[in-house]
Amino acid sequence: MVSDHSPSDPSPQQPLTDLSAAEVAQVHARQTAAYDALRAQGLGLDLTRGKPSTEQLDLSDGLLSLPSTTRDRSGADVRNYGGLQGIAELREIFADLLGIDADRIVAGGSSSLTMMRDVLVDLMLKGAVDGERPWAAEEKVTFVCPVPGYDRHFTLLSWLGIDTVTVPMLEDGPDVDAVARLVADDPSIKGMWLVPTYANPTGSVVTQEVAERLVSMPTAAPDFKILWDNAYALHHLTSAETKSADVLSLAAVAGNPHRPVVFASTSKITYAGAGVAFLAGSPETVAWYLGHLGKGSIGPDKLNQLRHAEFFGSADGVRAHMAEHRRIIAPKFAEVDRVLTERLGGTGVASWTRPEGGYFVSLDVLPGTASRVIELAARAGVALTPAGSAFPDSHDPDDQNIRLAPTFPPLADVTPAMEAVTTCVLLAATEKLTGA
Amino acid sequence: MVSDHSPSDPSPQQPLTDLSAAEVAQVHARQTAAYDALRAQGLGLDLTRGKPSTEQLDLSDGLLSLPSTTRDRSGADVRNYGGLQGIAELREIFADLLGIDADRIVAGGSSSLTMMRDVLVDLMLKGAVDGERPWAAEEKVTFVCPVPGYDRHFTLLSWLGIDTVTVPMLEDGPDVDAVARLVADDPSIKGMWLVPTYANPTGSVVTQEVAERLVSMPTAAPDFKILWDNAYALHHLTSAETKSADVLSLAAVAGNPHRPVVFASTSKITYAGAGVAFLAGSPETVAWYLGHLGKGSIGPDKLNQLRHAEFFGSADGVRAHMAEHRRIIAPKFAEVDRVLTERLGGTGVASWTRPEGGYFVSLDVLPGTASRVIELAARAGVALTPAGSAFPDSHDPDDQNIRLAPTFPPLADVTPAMEAVTTCVLLAATEKLTGA
Fold this sequence. Notes:
The structure is a homodimer.
Chain A: H1 21-41, E1 45-46, H2 54-58, H3 88-98, E2 105-107, H4 112-126, E3 142-147, H5 151-159, E4 163-170, E5 173-174, H6 176-185, E6 189-194, H7 208-216, E7 225-229, H8 247-253, E8 260-265, E9 277-280, H9 283-293, H10 302-312, H11 315-344, E10 350-352, E11 361-365, H12 370-379, E12 382-383, E13 401-404, H13 411-434
Parallel strand pairs in A: 1-12, 3-4, 3-6, 6-7, 7-8
Antiparallel strand pairs in A: 2-9, 4-5, 8-9, 10-11, 11-13
Helix pairs in contact in A: 1-13, 11-13, 12-13
């Protein structure tokens, strides 16, 4: 019974839609009071972006006094120009971690997003390694976007005038039947985004089977690309340390070796602003990328790469380092789930993910209320990612998805922030159900 | 008389063209002998690229244990995401040095060449801040290229399908009458390259008067751009420390505030591979650049920026640091000039620059012999920049220009390398004059 719940324990624990109009009105009144109390607290909390916390960044402060030498293993002075592909010792560490040959990996600057932009620009201006002409010469270019997904992926497409078509992101990856249908007939569909492991924001992990279908499905466009943004490959939240599908080998076996372009970075391993980003692909893809990259670069910051190689020492060094991250952030995810479960469990107006890795929880609220929840939260001093941001053009057709990013705030802040969110979710839901 | 000169002092010191055929044949025979002796030495020397030497890089090794803090002056954690324009304290130091307001400067990653590429890509794909459409939508885009110039500038144009038209680079900058004539009538001419101070490779310095004309000349293209690559702004070789023209103020006064886009970097101040690059322009240009940059970046490596800001402390810190560079490299330039003067002075088959700053000496040899000189030098173990590389499409119409870069080799290597070059210059000249 809803009347059992005080404002400090506001979850009705039974579907709101099963309640009578009068009972819903009661819940609404109680949530309104709870919300007023919330506003009076004058919170200033932020769950907007997937940023590492200060405590996480501190884990990498050994970098600040590295490197201890200025020559890489080959004897090259990392302070000088050159070495476009990045230093071998760091590529080897990530080759091990990503299951990709080191010579198929490029170690670049501090941003994998910049590498993605460069790849898209090269595709638009120059065409793919297996393409016939620049994409910009096509009448139309379209990307398949699993949703909810990563806002910056969609922004890049919109910036380049690339159209989007969405497919649902399921637990085992994108709805591969839907993808296969789309790409089979329409040659304007030139590629798709994918965060294969612990996806942003759903936490989905692309299975071996789904990966196999994606790299082998017939595509009307001969130069179809999968931009495989493996940003969270190593970012496990549980001891079930999922291994990403070996997309490059699968693609080669399927006869489509140039289809995937793989991205990764240490932005959420060492420093979000001063890490090292990686690109990988078929030998031809790597040569294609470096050929264009070399027009505007004489080499990456190899000093920072050597700094990272020394800091980690080996792939196991990275694994041990990631365990430290997990120690810090897993309790925050657990707290998000605890508050959501206690306050929204059984209400029928919210469902959410319990990711085994990555940086996000994807919260679905009563359809039509996500933007209202975000607005209410903002007024109560809790910043959430803008409504719809996990969809192309920021358009969530059902207005129900909210991306929660609990890593940045201290654990002590996650609790009040999430309590506030649940109050807003219930208030928005009862507003809608009562027509208030 | 040529017969006065032994192979170890092979300069005829009088115009080869004034000699009789028999005398030229004598010189040729002697240079052939000198060249054979040279090859027998098995040299392995390199004057190809404008790279700082190890001794120069060592000057900045204070960077290796910086920064001492991880927060910038504003309190932002430089290890985390954000801060697209770069940290204020470093922008202020370079604002002072470049004579540009700090809020009109963007501090970026480690490469100004990458910033130039990004600007050109943005112009092609999105159009200028004062333009009507993307440059890629024009039938033709052409750039004015002062020659000899910087090979990587020309490569970028060729990569983007931008045509080139050359004008001579004079001592006080590009032939501004020629530039003004070209741009006045042809709306396809959308921009020009310029290294305004101690130009690559001529050492030319654009005067205030030339700068004024360039920013005020009428252009048929309303969105004409001057890509003002001030790579050597602070790289003085003498106590006459030339001050670059204040191109942004001049352009604003002339009513063309968006015409110049300024680039600079610390690649040849601190580390060539791990410095900080800068872009500057009108407030609208900066907003335009950041707007596009932000599509593919969440912020630059601010940690490296803070590292640099701490290392320098102030603009005067940079100036003192540049004096140390001068101490190391000025003797190398003096040695280049000494050998050239002693061995080629008065021969009439070579002229060269005596730069007051920058990284290069531009050597003009007997027309039609530059590629032969470079070929001869290569066979003798002295690497020179490929023939024609200071011209668009690597085409030096007179086959006479050779770019010498004496900074990287130790001083002790500059002497034999330059002696070898002079032998090759004389041999190629006498080959040509004798029809050998």
